[in-house]
Amino acid sequence: MKARVHVMLKDGVLDPQGEAVRHALGHMGFGGVEAVRQGKVIELDLAATDKAAAEAEVKDMCEKLLANTVIEKYTIEIA
Amino acid sequence: MKAAVITFPGSNCDRDLSVAFARAGAEVVKVWHKETEIPAGVDVIGVPGGFSYGDYLRCGAIASRSPIGQAVADFAGRGGYVLGICNGFQVLTEMKLLPGALMRNAGLKFVSKPLSLRVTTTDSAFTSAYEAGQEIVIPVAHHDGNYQIDAEGLARLQGEDRVAFRYVENPNGSVDDIAGVLSENRRVLGMMPHPERVIENAQGGADGAALFRALTSVLESA
Protein backbone atom coordinates (compact mmCIF):
# COMPACT_ATOMS: atom_id res chain seq x y z
CA MET A 1 0.00 0.00 0.00
CA LYS A 2 1.32 3.43 -0.90
CA ALA A 3 0.75 6.66 0.92
CA ARG A 4 1.41 10.14 -0.35
CA VAL A 5 1.70 12.99 2.13
CA HIS A 6 1.49 16.62 1.04
CA VAL A 7 3.02 19.07 3.51
CA MET A 8 2.30 22.77 3.03
CA LEU A 9 2.81 25.86 5.15
CA LYS A 10 -0.41 26.83 6.90
CA ASP A 11 -2.49 29.58 5.34
CA GLY A 12 -1.29 32.93 6.62
CA VAL A 13 2.29 31.76 7.21
CA LEU A 14 4.55 33.73 4.87
CA ASP A 15 6.33 31.47 2.38
CA PRO A 16 9.55 33.28 1.36
CA GLN A 17 10.51 30.55 -1.13
CA GLY A 18 7.11 30.65 -2.82
CA GLU A 19 7.45 34.42 -3.06
CA ALA A 20 10.87 34.08 -4.71
CA VAL A 21 9.43 31.64 -7.25
CA ARG A 22 6.56 34.05 -7.96
CA HIS A 23 9.06 36.88 -8.58
CA ALA A 24 11.15 34.71 -10.89
CA LEU A 25 8.09 33.70 -12.90
CA GLY A 26 7.19 37.38 -13.26
CA HIS A 27 10.70 38.19 -14.55
CA MET A 28 10.39 35.37 -17.06
CA GLY A 29 7.26 36.90 -18.52
CA PHE A 30 4.66 34.70 -16.85
CA GLY A 31 2.27 37.48 -15.92
CA GLY A 32 -0.75 37.02 -13.74
CA VAL A 33 0.77 34.66 -11.16
CA GLU A 34 -0.84 36.08 -8.06
CA ALA A 35 0.59 33.71 -5.46
CA VAL A 36 2.93 30.72 -5.20
CA ARG A 37 3.07 28.37 -2.23
CA GLN A 38 5.77 25.73 -2.12
CA GLY A 39 5.47 22.47 -0.21
CA LYS A 40 6.72 18.90 -0.04
CA VAL A 41 5.45 15.55 -1.23
CA ILE A 42 6.52 12.50 0.77
CA GLU A 43 5.79 9.02 -0.64
CA LEU A 44 5.73 5.99 1.63
CA ASP A 45 5.56 2.28 0.78
CA LEU A 46 3.70 0.57 3.60
CA ALA A 47 3.41 -3.09 4.56
CA ALA A 48 -0.11 -2.43 5.87
CA THR A 49 -3.03 -3.84 3.85
CA ASP A 50 -5.90 -2.16 5.69
CA LYS A 51 -6.57 1.32 4.35
CA ALA A 52 -8.00 2.78 7.54
CA ALA A 53 -5.16 1.43 9.65
CA ALA A 54 -2.59 2.74 7.16
CA GLU A 55 -4.19 6.16 7.18
CA ALA A 56 -4.19 6.28 10.97
CA GLU A 57 -0.56 5.26 11.08
CA VAL A 58 0.51 7.86 8.51
CA LYS A 59 -1.44 10.54 10.39
CA ASP A 60 0.55 9.63 13.51
CA MET A 61 3.78 9.90 11.47
CA CYS A 62 2.73 13.36 10.27
CA GLU A 63 1.97 14.57 13.76
CA LYS A 64 5.22 13.20 15.19
CA LEU A 65 7.74 13.85 12.42
CA LEU A 66 6.69 14.52 8.83
CA ALA A 67 5.09 17.91 9.49
CA ASN A 68 5.80 20.62 12.04
CA THR A 69 2.22 21.44 12.94
CA VAL A 70 3.26 24.79 14.42
CA ILE A 71 3.65 26.12 10.87
CA GLU A 72 2.65 23.30 8.51
CA LYS A 73 -0.51 21.43 7.51
CA TYR A 74 -0.70 18.09 5.73
CA THR A 75 -3.01 15.90 3.67
CA ILE A 76 -2.76 12.13 3.22
CA GLU A 77 -3.67 10.04 0.16
CA ILE A 78 -3.68 6.26 0.44
CA ALA A 79 -3.61 4.15 -2.74
CA MET B 1 29.78 22.39 37.21
CA LYS B 2 29.49 19.82 34.48
CA ALA B 3 28.30 20.56 30.94
CA ALA B 4 27.39 17.99 28.27
CA VAL B 5 27.72 19.02 24.62
CA ILE B 6 25.83 16.90 22.10
CA THR B 7 27.39 16.05 18.74
CA PHE B 8 25.04 15.09 15.90
CA PRO B 9 26.29 14.13 12.45
CA GLY B 10 26.62 17.56 10.84
CA SER B 11 27.14 19.54 14.07
CA ASN B 12 29.98 21.99 13.55
CA CYS B 13 29.92 24.26 16.61
CA ASP B 14 30.23 21.51 19.22
CA ARG B 15 33.94 22.11 19.74
CA ASP B 16 33.55 25.89 20.10
CA LEU B 17 30.69 25.37 22.54
CA SER B 18 32.81 22.94 24.59
CA VAL B 19 35.63 25.49 24.76
CA ALA B 20 33.21 28.23 25.83
CA PHE B 21 31.90 26.09 28.70
CA ALA B 22 35.43 25.04 29.70
CA ARG B 23 36.76 28.62 29.71
CA ALA B 24 33.93 29.56 32.04
CA GLY B 25 35.16 26.87 34.43
CA ALA B 26 32.91 23.93 33.55
CA GLU B 27 33.97 20.33 33.18
CA VAL B 28 32.81 19.31 29.70
CA VAL B 29 31.71 15.91 28.42
CA LYS B 30 30.97 15.33 24.74
CA VAL B 31 27.96 13.13 24.04
CA TRP B 32 27.51 11.34 20.71
CA HIS B 33 24.04 11.31 19.15
CA LYS B 34 23.70 7.52 19.32
CA GLU B 35 23.98 7.49 23.08
CA THR B 36 20.70 7.18 24.92
CA GLU B 37 21.56 8.71 28.28
CA ILE B 38 23.04 11.93 29.55
CA PRO B 39 26.06 11.14 31.79
CA ALA B 40 25.45 11.34 35.54
CA GLY B 41 26.13 14.64 37.28
CA VAL B 42 25.52 16.87 34.25
CA ASP B 43 24.15 20.32 35.18
CA VAL B 44 23.61 21.76 31.72
CA ILE B 45 23.33 20.41 28.17
CA GLY B 46 24.57 22.39 25.19
CA VAL B 47 22.93 21.66 21.83
CA PRO B 48 25.34 23.14 19.27
CA GLY B 49 25.02 24.81 15.91
CA GLY B 50 25.60 23.16 12.57
CA PHE B 51 23.52 21.17 10.13
CA SER B 52 22.42 18.11 12.08
CA TYR B 53 21.51 15.23 9.75
CA GLY B 54 22.06 17.56 6.81
CA ASP B 55 18.97 19.62 7.75
CA TYR B 56 16.94 16.88 6.04
CA LEU B 57 13.14 17.20 6.25
CA ARG B 58 13.35 20.39 8.38
CA CYS B 59 16.22 21.93 10.32
CA GLY B 60 16.53 20.09 13.62
CA ALA B 61 13.67 17.68 12.92
CA ILE B 62 15.68 14.45 12.73
CA ALA B 63 18.00 15.40 15.60
CA SER B 64 15.05 16.11 17.87
CA ARG B 65 13.82 12.51 17.35
CA SER B 66 17.27 10.89 17.62
CA PRO B 67 18.13 8.55 20.53
CA ILE B 68 19.93 11.30 22.46
CA GLY B 69 17.13 13.73 21.62
CA GLN B 70 14.75 11.90 23.92
CA ALA B 71 17.36 11.98 26.70
CA VAL B 72 17.74 15.76 26.27
CA ALA B 73 13.95 16.20 26.44
CA ASP B 74 13.77 14.03 29.59
CA PHE B 75 16.61 16.01 31.18
CA ALA B 76 14.77 19.28 30.50
CA GLY B 77 11.55 17.71 31.78
CA ARG B 78 13.28 17.03 35.10
CA GLY B 79 14.15 20.74 35.37
CA GLY B 80 17.61 20.50 33.79
CA TYR B 81 19.26 23.45 32.07
CA VAL B 82 19.60 23.34 28.29
CA LEU B 83 21.23 25.85 25.95
CA GLY B 84 20.48 25.50 22.23
CA ILE B 85 22.38 27.69 19.80
CA CYS B 86 21.46 28.14 16.13
CA ASN B 87 20.73 24.60 14.89
CA GLY B 88 20.43 23.76 18.60
CA PHE B 89 17.59 26.31 18.88
CA GLN B 90 15.90 24.66 15.89
CA VAL B 91 16.28 21.27 17.57
CA LEU B 92 14.70 22.56 20.81
CA THR B 93 11.68 24.02 18.99
CA GLU B 94 11.27 20.74 17.07
CA MET B 95 11.32 18.94 20.45
CA LYS B 96 8.65 21.38 21.65
CA LEU B 97 10.86 22.33 24.59
CA LEU B 98 10.50 25.88 23.27
CA PRO B 99 7.43 27.29 21.50
CA GLY B 100 7.33 28.53 17.90
CA ALA B 101 9.32 27.51 14.84
CA LEU B 102 12.31 28.71 12.81
CA MET B 103 11.62 29.25 9.13
CA ARG B 104 13.68 30.21 6.08
CA ASN B 105 15.05 33.79 6.42
CA ALA B 106 12.56 36.28 4.97
CA GLY B 107 15.29 37.61 2.63
CA LEU B 108 16.08 34.01 1.57
CA LYS B 109 19.82 34.61 1.99
CA PHE B 110 22.17 32.91 4.42
CA VAL B 111 23.13 35.67 6.88
CA SER B 112 26.62 35.49 8.43
CA LYS B 113 27.82 38.58 10.31
CA PRO B 114 28.19 40.12 13.76
CA LEU B 115 24.93 41.72 14.91
CA SER B 116 23.85 43.91 17.79
CA LEU B 117 21.41 42.28 20.19
CA ARG B 118 19.52 43.83 23.05
CA VAL B 119 19.38 41.81 26.26
CA THR B 120 15.64 41.76 26.92
CA THR B 121 15.58 40.00 30.27
CA THR B 122 18.22 39.42 32.91
CA ASP B 123 15.91 37.06 34.79
CA SER B 124 17.58 33.77 33.81
CA ALA B 125 20.73 31.84 34.63
CA PHE B 126 21.93 32.60 31.09
CA THR B 127 21.45 36.37 31.08
CA SER B 128 21.94 37.41 34.72
CA ALA B 129 25.45 38.79 34.09
CA TYR B 130 24.16 41.28 31.50
CA GLU B 131 22.29 44.46 32.24
CA ALA B 132 18.68 44.87 31.14
CA GLY B 133 18.61 46.65 27.79
CA GLN B 134 22.38 46.18 27.30
CA GLU B 135 23.49 45.98 23.68
CA ILE B 136 25.91 43.19 22.89
CA VAL B 137 27.49 42.11 19.62
CA ILE B 138 27.18 38.42 18.78
CA PRO B 139 27.62 36.84 15.33
CA VAL B 140 24.82 35.06 13.48
CA ALA B 141 25.29 32.45 10.74
CA HIS B 142 22.06 30.90 9.56
CA HIS B 143 19.66 30.34 6.70
CA ASP B 144 16.64 29.40 8.79
CA GLY B 145 16.48 31.83 11.70
CA ASN B 146 13.14 33.46 11.02
CA TYR B 147 11.38 32.90 14.35
CA GLN B 148 7.61 32.60 14.04
CA ILE B 149 4.94 32.01 16.64
CA ASP B 150 1.18 32.65 16.66
CA ALA B 151 -0.20 35.83 18.24
CA GLU B 152 -1.32 34.05 21.38
CA GLY B 153 2.08 32.41 21.89
CA LEU B 154 3.86 35.70 21.29
CA ALA B 155 1.69 37.50 23.84
CA ARG B 156 2.51 34.77 26.32
CA LEU B 157 6.28 35.06 25.71
CA GLN B 158 6.07 38.83 26.13
CA GLY B 159 3.80 38.69 29.19
CA GLU B 160 6.03 36.14 30.93
CA ASP B 161 9.23 38.06 30.12
CA ARG B 162 10.58 35.09 28.14
CA VAL B 163 12.19 36.92 25.21
CA ALA B 164 15.89 36.72 26.13
CA PHE B 165 17.40 38.69 23.23
CA ARG B 166 16.10 40.89 20.43
CA TYR B 167 17.90 41.95 17.25
CA VAL B 168 18.57 45.69 17.08
CA GLU B 169 18.25 45.34 13.29
CA ASN B 170 16.19 42.34 12.24
CA PRO B 171 18.24 40.16 9.81
CA ASN B 172 15.74 37.39 9.06
CA GLY B 173 12.12 38.48 9.49
CA SER B 174 11.69 37.08 13.02
CA VAL B 175 8.46 38.20 14.64
CA ASP B 176 9.02 40.97 17.24
CA ASP B 177 12.78 40.93 16.37
CA ILE B 178 13.17 37.83 18.56
CA ALA B 179 16.68 36.33 18.64
CA GLY B 180 16.30 34.05 21.67
CA VAL B 181 13.57 32.70 23.93
CA LEU B 182 13.31 31.01 27.32
CA SER B 183 11.15 28.09 28.42
CA GLU B 184 8.39 28.54 30.98
CA ASN B 185 10.72 27.49 33.84
CA ARG B 186 13.47 29.78 32.39
CA ARG B 187 15.95 26.89 32.31
CA VAL B 188 15.93 26.24 28.57
CA LEU B 189 17.30 28.96 26.28
CA GLY B 190 17.28 28.82 22.50
CA MET B 191 19.00 31.52 20.46
CA MET B 192 20.08 31.91 16.84
CA PRO B 193 23.22 34.06 17.46
CA HIS B 194 26.45 32.33 18.51
CA PRO B 195 27.73 33.49 21.93
CA GLU B 196 30.33 30.67 21.87
CA ARG B 197 32.07 32.43 18.97
CA VAL B 198 32.82 35.57 21.02
CA ILE B 199 34.32 34.50 24.33
CA GLU B 200 37.68 36.24 24.08
CA ASN B 201 38.89 39.37 22.32
CA ALA B 202 41.10 37.42 19.92
CA GLN B 203 37.82 36.35 18.28
CA GLY B 204 36.90 39.97 17.59
CA GLY B 205 34.73 40.37 20.66
CA ALA B 206 33.96 38.80 24.01
CA ASP B 207 30.31 39.67 24.60
CA GLY B 208 29.34 36.00 24.71
CA ALA B 209 31.59 35.14 27.65
CA ALA B 210 29.20 36.62 30.23
CA LEU B 211 26.50 34.12 29.26
CA PHE B 212 28.72 31.12 30.05
CA ARG B 213 30.16 32.82 33.15
CA ALA B 214 26.66 33.53 34.51
CA LEU B 215 25.54 29.97 33.85
CA THR B 216 28.59 28.48 35.55
CA SER B 217 28.27 30.67 38.62
CA VAL B 218 24.51 30.03 39.03
CA LEU B 219 24.93 26.26 38.62
CA GLU B 220 27.96 26.05 40.88
CA SER B 221 26.14 27.76 43.70
CA ALA B 222 23.01 25.62 43.16
UniProtKB/TrEMBL annotation, chain A:
<keyword id="KW-0963">Cytoplasm</keyword>
<dbReference type="GO" id="GO:0005524">
    <property type="term" value="F:ATP binding"/>
</dbReference>
<keyword id="KW-0547">Nucleotide-binding</keyword>
<dbReference type="InterPro" id="IPR003850">
    <property type="entry name" value="PurS"/>
</dbReference>
<dbReference type="InterPro" id="IPR036604">
    <property type="entry name" value="PurS-like_sf"/>
</dbReference>
<comment type="subunit">
    <text>Part of the FGAM synthase complex composed of 1 PurL, 1 PurQ and 2 PurS subunits.</text>
</comment>
<keyword id="KW-0658">Purine biosynthesis</keyword>
<comment type="function">
    <text>Part of the phosphoribosylformylglycinamidine synthase complex involved in the purines biosynthetic pathway. Catalyzes the ATP-dependent conversion of formylglycinamide ribonucleotide (FGAR) and glutamine to yield formylglycinamidine ribonucleotide (FGAM) and glutamate. The FGAM synthase complex is composed of three subunits. PurQ produces an ammonia molecule by converting glutamine to glutamate. PurL transfers the ammonia molecule to FGAR to form FGAM in an ATP-dependent manner.</text>
</comment>
<dbReference type="GO" id="GO:0005737">
    <property type="term" value="C:cytoplasm"/>
</dbReference>
<dbReference type="GO" id="GO:0006189">
    <property type="term" value="P:'de novo' IMP biosynthetic process"/>
</dbReference>
<protein>
    <recommendedName>
        <fullName>Phosphoribosylformylglycinamidine synthase subunit PurS</fullName>
        <ecNumber>6.3.5.3</ecNumber>
    </recommendedName>
</protein>
<dbReference type="Pfam" id="PF02700">
    <property type="entry name" value="PurS"/>
</dbReference>
<dbReference type="GO" id="GO:0004642">
    <property type="term" value="F:phosphoribosylformylglycinamidine synthase activity"/>
</dbReference>
<comment type="pathway">
    <text>Purine metabolism; IMP biosynthesis via de novo pathway; 5-amino-1-(5-phospho-D-ribosyl)imidazole from N(2)-formyl-N(1)-(5-phospho-D-ribosyl)glycinamide: step 1/2.</text>
</comment>
<keyword id="KW-0436">Ligase</keyword>
<comment type="similarity">
    <text>Belongs to the PurS family.</text>
</comment>
<keyword id="KW-0067">ATP-binding</keyword>
From TrEMBL, chain B:
<dbReference type="InterPro" id="IPR010075">
    <property type="entry name" value="PRibForGlyAmidine_synth_PurQ"/>
</dbReference>
<keyword id="KW-0658">Purine biosynthesis</keyword>
<dbReference type="GO" id="GO:0004642">
    <property type="term" value="F:phosphoribosylformylglycinamidine synthase activity"/>
</dbReference>
<keyword id="KW-0436">Ligase</keyword>
<comment type="pathway">
    <text>Purine metabolism; IMP biosynthesis via de novo pathway; 5-amino-1-(5-phospho-D-ribosyl)imidazole from N(2)-formyl-N(1)-(5-phospho-D-ribosyl)glycinamide: step 1/2.</text>
</comment>
<comment type="function">
    <text>Part of the phosphoribosylformylglycinamidine synthase complex involved in the purines biosynthetic pathway. Catalyzes the ATP-dependent conversion of formylglycinamide ribonucleotide (FGAR) and glutamine to yield formylglycinamidine ribonucleotide (FGAM) and glutamate. The FGAM synthase complex is composed of three subunits. PurQ produces an ammonia molecule by converting glutamine to glutamate. PurL transfers the ammonia molecule to FGAR to form FGAM in an ATP-dependent manner.</text>
</comment>
<dbReference type="GO" id="GO:0005737">
    <property type="term" value="C:cytoplasm"/>
</dbReference>
<keyword id="KW-0963">Cytoplasm</keyword>
<dbReference type="GO" id="GO:0004359">
    <property type="term" value="F:glutaminase activity"/>
</dbReference>
<keyword id="KW-0378">Hydrolase</keyword>
<comment type="subunit">
    <text>Part of the FGAM synthase complex composed of 1 PurL, 1 PurQ and 2 PurS subunits.</text>
</comment>
<keyword id="KW-0547">Nucleotide-binding</keyword>
<keyword id="KW-0067">ATP-binding</keyword>
<protein>
    <recommendedName>
        <fullName>Phosphoribosylformylglycinamidine synthase subunit PurQ</fullName>
        <ecNumber>6.3.5.3</ecNumber>
        <ecNumber>3.5.1.2</ecNumber>
    </recommendedName>
</protein>
<feature type="active site">
    <location>
        <position position="194"/>
    </location>
</feature>
<feature type="active site" description="Nucleophile">
    <location>
        <position position="86"/>
    </location>
</feature>
<feature type="active site">
    <location>
        <position position="196"/>
    </location>
</feature>
<dbReference type="GO" id="GO:0005524">
    <property type="term" value="F:ATP binding"/>
</dbReference>
<dbReference type="InterPro" id="IPR029062">
    <property type="entry name" value="Class_I_gatase-like"/>
</dbReference>
<dbReference type="GO" id="GO:0006189">
    <property type="term" value="P:'de novo' IMP biosynthetic process"/>
</dbReference>
<dbReference type="Pfam" id="PF13507">
    <property type="entry name" value="GATase_5"/>
</dbReference>
<keyword id="KW-0315">Glutamine amidotransferase</keyword>
